Amino acid sequence: MKRRPSRVALAWVATFCLVVAGCATRTQTFVVLDGDDMVRSETATLEVEVRGDDGAVVRASTFRPGASDPALPFSLALEPRGGDASRRFDVRAIARRTDGSALAEARVRSGYVSGRALSLRVYLSTACRDVSCPDPITTCRAGACEDLFVPPETLPDHPDDDVDASTPDVGPTIDAWLAALDAPSPDASIEIDARTTDDTGAASDAASSDASATDAATLDASTRDASTTDAFVPIDAATPDAGSDAGPPPLDPGVLLHVAGDTGSFADIVFVTGDASQVCAAGRLRGGATIAGTHLDPTTSGTTGTWVACFDVTPSGTTPRYVRRLEPVGDTLVGAIALDAAGRLYLGVNSDAGGRTFGTTTLTARSVLVRIERDGTISAALALSAPESDEPTQAMLSGSQLYVSSFAAGGSDALVSRFETSTFARVSSLRTLGGYNVALDVGSAGVLVGGYFNPGPADLATVRVLDAALGSTLWTYDSVGSAYVQALAMSATGHAFVGTRARFGNFQWAGSALVSPGSDGADAGDIVLTRIDPTGVIEWVTRPIVAAGEDVIGGLDVADDGSLVAVGYSPDLLAPSGLAELAGRTSGREGWVLHARGDSGAPIAWDRISATTDCVVQRMWRTGEWLYVTGLFRGTVQAVVSPAFGGGLTATGMQDAFVVRVRIPS
After folding, report:
1. End-to-end Cα, the chain, rounded Å
2. Contact, 244 vs 232, CB < 8 A?
3. pLDDT of 466
4. Which partner from 105, 216, 541, 573 sits 20 to 30 angstroms from 591, CA to CA?
5. Nearest 5 degrees, angle CA 274-CA 278-CA 279?
6. Could you tell me the CA-to-CA distances from 658 to 277, 487, 502, 611 in Å, in that order?
């Protein structure tokens, strides 16, 4: 027997239709998610992500059902921006158990038909858990790979009786901005932002409704009588502006990946990059390893291979998209990484021998630039440099231009090259006439490159700014005394920040009256930070990290507020000047994360990442207040910056690697 919809639902529908003016003629597609019996009964969290035509995430929501609200069925309504029915969208849904493990996943791509409200039904099936579809335009449905795209003209009209409690396939509805959450009783006054959202994230204001007057709730196939004690509120109600176009809530700190080496294996330097919706990492590995549940078999005995892993970022964590080896034969070492707006990954790799095949391209060059598509397939490869022997060290994207730094064998003639990503072709190159390029950044003042060269008995630090076209050098600084430039960053104002490891206590920038505080005979290897204005004038030099041994700075960036963030590692770690010592190990190599003032370099705060035996923090990538930090360790990791480590991340090989997500210390 059909039950009549409650007064609550009918009142809300009437209000909503009056506000948007013309429900019957709107161009919409209702995506209706459902699953098999196991998925229905065991789903504790349902994650739904919507991408627009350009592949960018425009909405990512997480639904955690209550005891009386099953996660499935679940539906959301999408509308095209400006009523353009030619637009397309991609929907991805992941059902997770209470422990966070994935129970089932479903993907679909479709669109709209002008003037119609369509119903697109998507089924999450456990039969697809062990099915991998190698073709990126296919997806698993009912255990088989089928076309990802569902033509919208083949879809049925969405039933207009979805408020009827007997309709079994429709759960909470209205749009991607609304999802079910526990809420106050109906006596509370709740503002509902009744907005419609299209597949690009554009929204049209509707009206807010007072729950005390209308008991406003989203439509629900299950009965919601006036006496119900829960209401549906915007998923972003907990954010500062519930009705804003802000993205999903930030992820909790935690481990992105653990490269768990087989017995006798070891991991080497790890690079990381990403954007708001994905994170990719690549590194060196000798032997086999398990990464995000995927085991990579050992390469040929005695050789080192390159592994690559990419993850989609969701509100509740990260989901592996692919994990693979780049080259299974011979010593192949990654040296540079970058990610473009389309999700394509660029890797600079170096080998001990040529004649290797990448995708469909065979190259004799030892140094190669490889492009990897979003699904993990290699789509292009080319020789990195003219001498065919330069080793890549850093990559950076600026719009469609990809800059790659490298150095030749022997360090006699370093190179910066510029590539056009749309054609995957070299546009220009510039020899920087100095040993080893190891750091690179691109900003408003040009291309910032740094490293060191060896004119005699000492390695001298060098930093340069090149014009964006790589036609000339704008300004250059070389050091007095032995030092290495290891990390660089350029601010939005064009200021260059330089992270240098000064050796033997005699470091000074040539041509400048400013001398590092480490030039007074302090211990070897202290970290020196320098700020240089856009015209090449040194503004300040400071030494924030002091240790009894050689410190290493692995990453440097300028935060949104103009302050500095740096990561690295030190032996016998001491607190930066003016900051308290942290509890924990005070001997052996330990990683650190430093937050410093951008106008002076003075330390603001710091934290430690250490391990029971050894921990080396190497690289970082920043987004907002969050850092993705890479490192190598032996023993068991103990972290101050990330409680998610919990002391439980234990190395299985001779040396394992990790990527962890932490907040900037404050």
Report:
1. 60
2. no
3. 95
4. 541
5. 50
6. 20, 20, 27, 12
Tell me if 417 sits within 8 A of 437, measured CB to CB.
no
Residues paired with residue 632 on neighbouring β-strands, in sequence order: 616, 657
The overall average pLDDT reported for the chain is: 74
Contacts of 399 by beta carbon, 8 Å cutoff, 6+ apart? none
Q: One-letter amino acid identity for 29?
A: T
**DSSP letters of 307-344?**
EEEEEEEETTEEEEEEEEES--SS-EEEEEEEE-TTS-
Residues 620, 607: contact at Cβ < 8 Å?
no
**What DSSP line would sit under 271-309, residue for residue?**
EEEE-SSEEEEEEEEES-EEETTEEEPP-STT--EEEEE
Task: Please say whether the beta carbons of 572 and 548 come within 8 A.
Answer: yes
| Whether 58 contacts 50, CB under 8 Å | yes
The answer for 318, left when phi > 0, alpha when psi is -120 to 50, beta otherwise, is beta
Q: Which residues, including other chains, have CB under 8 Å from residue 603's CB and lie 6 or more apart? A: 544, 576, 577, 578, 579, 594, 595, 596, 597
Strands (E), 45-132: 45-51, 57-63, 74-78, 88-96, 102-111, 117-124
73, 184 contact by CB (below 8 A): no
Neighbours of 24 (CB within 10 A): 8
| Angular region, 647: left φ>0, alpha ψ -120 to 50, beta rest | left
Dist. CA 191–CA 241, nearest whole Å: 12
Question: What's the mean pLDDT in 194-222?
Answer: 29
Cα gap 405→413, rounded to integer Å: 11
Of residues 26 and 188, more confidently modeled: 26
Give the position of tokens 């890797």. Answer: 347
Q: 498 forms bridges with which residues in the sheet?
A: 488, 530
28 neighbors 117 (Cβ within 8 angstroms): yes
Sign of CA dihedral 99, 103, 109, 113: negative
**AA letter at 602:** A
Report the distance separating Cα 388 and Cα 410, nearest Å.
Answer: 14
The CA R_g of the chain, rounded to the nearest whole Å, is 27
> Any bridge partners for residue 617, and if so which?
631
pLDDT in tens, 306-315: 899 999 887 6
Neighbours of 331 (CB within 10 A): 18
How far apart CA 326 and CA 324 sit, in angstroms, is 6
- For 98, half-sphere exposure in the C-beta direction (CA atoms, 13 angstrom radius) is 3
Confidence of residue 463 (pLDDT cuts 50, 70, 90): very high
Residue of 177, 214, 212, 213 lying closest to 198 (CA atoms): 177
Greatest pairwise CA separation for the chain in angstroms: 92
Q: CA 178, CA 167: separation in Å to the nearest integer?
A: 20
CA distance 41 to 35: 9
